[in-house]
Amino acid sequence: MNSEISSGSVPAKSTHDWQPCSASGGVRVLNGFLKVIEFDAAECTRHADAFERLRRGELQAVIVHNMYEQAALHGLVERLERRDPVFLQTWFPEKFRSWFYGRNLNLSRPGLDGYFDEAAQFHRQLESLLPGPQGLVQHVGRLLAQLDGGRPVRAAPGPLPGQNYMFTTFRAHLEGGYIPPHFDNEQTLRPTYRNLHEIVELHMTSFVLALTQAEDGGALEVFNLTEEPAAARMLSDDRVLVKPDVSALDSVSFRLPAGSLILLDSGRYLHRLTPVRGARKRWTACSFMALSRNRDATYCWG
Ligand SMILES: [Fe+2]
Predict the structure, then answer these.
(1) Confidence at 9, pLDDT banded by 50, 70, 90
(2) What's the pTM value of the predicted model, to 2 decimals?
């Protein structure tokens, strides 16, 4: 939907700011290209084909509201702010002004030395943060499985028996924090992805569970530019000089309220995190996902 034409007849970028709409569960087409459905967490079983529609390209995003009650979220974020439990803290490149609890696979050592021990510890800490069926692994995994006809959603298994990748990581984005435009499938080009290559299909999606909302900014901006799973290319690397000109691309910007989750076709669609404005941190839990090669599960990693 390029209604604005500049004086030189070059199409100008058009950005659509998404607004929550939990009522329908029907498909909305945002800015002429991004098809999204959204509904309440209690409705997940009524959308058992949501993942399949995402994989087929019939949807680009699925938004699930009220994944957790607000009181539970406040308690969770308060503990994250206090670093209780003492999660492993790791960092994005410094200029992104953001960090993780847990270790992002992209930023792990090429041979994954120590990663699976850290993952076991991280899962124990997740369990102490929110125990039992409300735990992130159980609760988010169960609701996501409902969106895929009951197919289990679980941490990807590591190369040795008993090993698992981190189901997710927490991300804290400070004022000015951002992530530049990229396709998530660029991680398939990294050495840290070698084991996953053998056990998952190429098409990758991701979820972002909002734990807090930035005062301003901190939007997930999705551009009208796609790349097929087999054609991954590295964009979030300073040595790559030729990058898409996002100033010319139509986009949709999502600022999710705390407790909402977005499932995005982030392997195919170019996207970025716009700079966070204001003192409040933007806290999320974020994971990547792909079907196991024998299609009996969806595997997650953070
Ligand atoms: Fe991404």
Answers:
(1) low
(2) 0.93
